[in-house]
Write a structure and sequence with these properties.
- The structure holds two protein chains of two kinds.
- Chain A is mainly α.
- Chain A is built from 16 helices and two strands.
- In chain B, strands 1-2 form a two-stranded antiparallel ribbon.
- By secondary structure, chain B is mainly α.
- In chain B, helix 1 packs antiparallel against helix 9, helix 2 crosses helix 7 and helix 2 crosses helix 8.
- Chain B has a domain of about 190 residues.
- The chains are: A mainly alpha, B mainly alpha.
- The interface between A and B is large, with 42 and 45 residues.
Chain lengths: ~325, ~280
């Protein structure tokens, strides 16, 4: 608040240095398709999509103090709706995408209604149980979801067929969405969420409507998870129950934690780390879930502050 | 709902009770939400299956499953969870990692086929219950559920260990300050709760069969039971199991494809009014 106005007014409160760094990162990211193989461009696209998912989880975990294990389901609902709307119902990809985000938002608001009264471990358990219910429905409701076999549809618009064109579209989307999320957590509303994270009772006695703030925070986070899910539908042209499974939520949370809780943009670092790891592991063995489990355990024991936080701690120790 | 379906609901509730009572004991006393509980159930089922097939004895299968799962519980508690004591979130996420690991390990060892634990000779076939023909084995499961409930009730309310556990649920620090080695009580509870998951795996494996995603399903049901019943309350688990078991059966009869919603509805209503569950107490 005490920063001089001249330094922060460049672009909606971003300092000029942060703006330069952000611009450089985006330019480097935009140049990637020129040096990478088309397979690697696919991986980079995946990193962006899952980075957005991890960021949406970070809105709640890092800024409202509530870790959700149900965001994979919100993400997956959007994927399901997009694939169903374009494949089965014959809508255009854009209409399907809009419907998917809408559906994810609706699911998120239902989750939010139930979950805002809880905190800590109970919040975790409840979101986990709700996510499992979505997974159960997708698995069992075979007439609509295709059950275990899933559904296939050509969701990706014709203009974005090539790997690089789609990558650039996703990059543009990710930049816009990241900026929106960054604004969201820096807004007075976001500050209120942070207040709730630090002391719920104090915020309540100051007259803030805590459940309402959490409800809106959760729903907004669901919109972003839904956008990620819709992009994933276009990326994959396919959806199956594993897209809404617990593993999806867990991967999202792991990416968020690996990148650093509350860092927001760290989510992309976390997503890159986990996706690269997944691909290296998968080229040697089929036991990715086992490695994911072990990674989770190791991070929880040795680096709960995330990769960036850990590196920062190590380097600062060396400097001293 | 016919008597047959009512009995189905009750036997499923009995199985849920055996699994979820272990879950809630650990949750209530140690404050650890063990999300690997479902994986322990599945592992117990598979190990019980292997032992029962090798030795031809259902009882040995049960003992094997409980012993093996208690051993895994020991490694989990002493080998991993000790590093993250006192931090609820890290504990939960760590057990989740373990759940993934165990689930995948089970896939490596037993493959993706589904198995059914062989039912012993004397429990095969059916019998008449109030004019309805019903499988004896499922009645046995119902009996086991009641037996475990009574056993736990006696243990918690009429033994010294039970008194320590109850005191620990209320205030672990005070118990420790009065000269009791609460760590040992904690460890016992963790092993015992894990063993109950193993026993549940064997019991459930004989009528629900065992397959790679069975752990996630049973975990969801256990979570629903604990969320409805409240943390660390034996009566809560009993009532929660009955509710979830009966509602699940009702749901499967009326809306087979959306059975999950039928559990979810009451859970939602309940949470709106009692966030800590029916019998949960704030601490």
């Amino acid at each position: 608040m005490t920063q001089p106005v001249s330094k922060t007014s460049v672009l909606a409160g971003m300092t000029s240095r942060a703006l330069v760094i952000a611009g450089l990162v985006v330019i480097v990211a935009a140049c990637l398709p020129m040096v990478l193989s088309s397979y690697q461009v696919g991986l980079a696209t995946e990193v962006l999509i899952f980075g957005v998912l991890a960021m949406s989880i970070d809105i709640l975990a890092g800024f409202a103090g509530r870790t959700s294990l149900g965001h994979g389901a919100i993400f997956g609902v959007s994927t399901y709706v997009v694939v169903y709307a374009t494949g089965q119902a014959g809508l255009s990809p854009w209409a399907g995408f809009a419907l998917g985000v809408l559906a994810a938002t609706a699911v998120a608001s239902v989750f939010a209604l139930l979950a805002v009264r809880t905190s800590g471990v109970y919040f975790l358990l409840l979101t986990l149980a709700l996510g499992m219910i979505v997974w159960g429905v997708c698995l069992r409701w075979t007439q609509v979801t295709g059950g275990e076999n899933g559904m296939r549809a050509d969701v990706r618009p014709a203009a974005l067929m090539s790997h690089s064109a789609f990558y650039w579209a996703v990059l543009a989307g990710a930049v816009i969405v990241s900026f929106a999320m960054w604004r969201f957590v820096r807004s007075p509303f976001g500050l209120t969420l942070r207040g709730i994270r630090d002391s719920e009772s104090r915020m309540r006695s100051l007259g803030y409507n805590v459940p309402l703030h959490l409800f809106i925070g959760f729903t907004v986070s669901g919109i972003f998870a839904g956008i990620a899910g819709g992009l994933y539908a276009m990326f994959n042209n396919f959806v199956s129950p594993s897209t809404v499974a617990l593993a999806q939520s867990v991967e999202g949370v792991l990416m968020m934690i690996a990148g650093g809780v509350g860092t927001l943009f760290g989510a992309f670092v976390g997503a890159a780390a986990i996706i690269v790891l997944e691909n290296i592991v998968s080229s040697y063995t089929e036991r990715w879930l086992m490695v994911l489990g072990i990674t989770f355990v190791l991070i929880m024991i040795f680096a709960p502050e995330g990769i960036i936080g850990k590196l920062r701690a190590i380097t600062s120790r060396k400097v001293r | 709902m016919s008597l047959f379906q009512l009995l189905n609901g009750l036997t499923f509730a009995a199985l849920l009770f055996v699994v979820a009572s272990g879950f809630t004991l650990i949750f209530g006393l140690l404050r650890i939400v063990n999300l690997a509980h479902g994986a322990l159930y599945l592992f117990g089922g598979y190990i019980g299956y292997s032992v029962a097939v090798k030795t031809g004895s259902f009882v040995l299968g049960g003992i094997g499953a409980m012993a093996a799962i208690a051993a895994i519980g020991f490694v989990l508690d002493q080998g991993l969870l000790r590093f993250v004591r006192g931090n609820e979130l890290r504990q939960v996420l760590l057990t989740l990692g373990v759940a993934f690991f165990l689930n995948d390990l089970a896939l490596v060892i037993w493959g993706g086929d589904s198995f059914t634990v062989p039912i012993p000779e004397m429990l095969r076939g059916g019998t008449r219950v109030f004019g309805t023909f019903y499988p004896i084995y499922r009645l046995f499961v119902l009996g086991m559920g009641i037996f475990v409930f009574v056993g736990l009730w006696v243990l918690l309310n009429h033994t010294k260990l039970g008194a320590l556990i109850r005191a620990g649920v209320d205030d672990a620090e005070m118990v420790e300050a009065s000269g009791v080695n609460i760590r040992r009580v904690f460890l016992f509870t963790f092993l015992f709760g894990s063993a109950l998951a193993g026993l549940g795996g064997l019991m459930g494996g004989a009528f629900l069969s065992l397959y790679p995603s069975a752990d996630a399903e049973i975990l969801t049901f256990s979570l629903a039971v604990v969320i409805i019943g409240g943390r660390g309350s034996l009566v809560g688990v009993g009532v929660g199991s009955l509710l979830v078991g009966l509602l699940n059966t009702l749901g499967q009869v009326m809306f087979p494809e959306l059975a999950y919603f039928v559990i979810f509805g009451p859970m939602a209503v309940l949470l709106a009014f009692r966030p800590l569950g029916l019998f949960g107490r704030a601490t």
